[in-house]
Design a protein that fits this description.
Layout: H1 3-46, E1 54-58, E2 61-65, H2 67-121
Antiparallel strand pairs: 1-2
């Protein structure tokens, strides 16, 4: 495989990694927003009196819900979201490491191509 072809392959792999990284970062941002929202709900629940009534929206309808069940659901959601954030963060680290390796590979191939072109453009020296 020529250097040019190899460079194109490695460059497209690098670009795919960059796209994957971008998607993972977006996913993390969405999870952070969900985490923040659920933490606010938890704070509100912590301020409720035991006799307070809690409603859950199901479609266009508000349905009465047991307060302890609602609190439990929010706690479960917070655990899940926190776990997902950790998973996505490790995914981001992994993609960043792969991306750095590909970037180095691209630079090495570009350098090799430039050296090859420089040699080809030098006139042959005859003795």
């Amino acid at each position: 495989m020529s250097l040019q072809a190899k460079l194109q392959v490695v460059t497209s792999e690098f670009q795919k990694l960059q796209l994957d990284l971008s998607n993972a970062v977006e996913a993390r941002q969405r999870l952070e927003a969900q985490l923040s929202e659920n933490q606010l709900v938890k704070k509100e629940f912590d301020q409720l009196k035991p006799e307070s009534v809690v409603y859950k929206q199901i479609g266009p309808v508000l349905v009465k819900q047991d307060q302890s069940e609602a609190k439990s659901n929010v706690d479960t959601r917070l655990e899940f979201i926190t776990g997902e954030i950790k998973r996505v963060e490790s995914q981001i680290k992994e993609i960043e490491q792969k991306s750095e390796k590909k970037k180095t590979e691209v630079l090495e191939l570009q350098t090799s191509m430039q050296q090859q072109q420089a040699k080809a453009s030098q006139p042959a020296i005859k003795a």
